[in-house]
Amino acid sequence: xxxxxxxxxxxxxxxxxxxxxxxxxxxxxxxxxxxxxxxxxxxxxxxxxxxxxxxxxxxxxxxxxxxxxxxxxxxxxxxxxxxxxxxxxxxxxxxxxxxxxxxxxxxxxxxxxxxxxxxxxxxxxxxxxxxxxxxxxxxxxxxxxxxxxxxxxxxx
Length: 156
Known about the structure:
By secondary structure, the chain is α+β, with helices and mostly antiparallel strands. It folds into two domains: 1-31, no CATH class; 36-155, Glutaredoxin. The chain has helices at 3-10, 16-31, 53-63, 81-91, 104-108, 118-127, and strands at residues 44-48, 69-73, 136-139, 142-145. α1 (3-10) packs antiparallel against α2 (16-31). The longest helix is centred in the N-terminal third of the chain and has 16 residues, at 16-31. It is globular, with a radius of gyration of 16 Å. The two termini are 31 Å apart.
């Protein structure tokens, strides 16, 4: 069955949770050949903000495990739209679920408006990376948000 045929099936799902599970079951295996720096190797990648306490705690937790770690300070090097899309698929989350809704830019850009499309929200995450919930850790073809920091241990 082609991926596009699988996507047609999504329209039959009745609940948001069922849709989310179905999308993750369909999309995640399709992403395995794709790479987001470090995800297809034994390397672990962290989207890190050194000013964030949870991000620093997660980084320390990873460094204590003596793993091959790639640190991306995502405020200085924002992920592109495709990387954000892949991260969302690996997290099995929608854009609003990884947005920091308390940031001023969230309100200024009216990102809480129900009419915002998924593409618009992803573009906003790219244009304003401060909106990305942090830290995000990628390992073994999976991703987790480090809140709490121990959550990332699930994917190592």
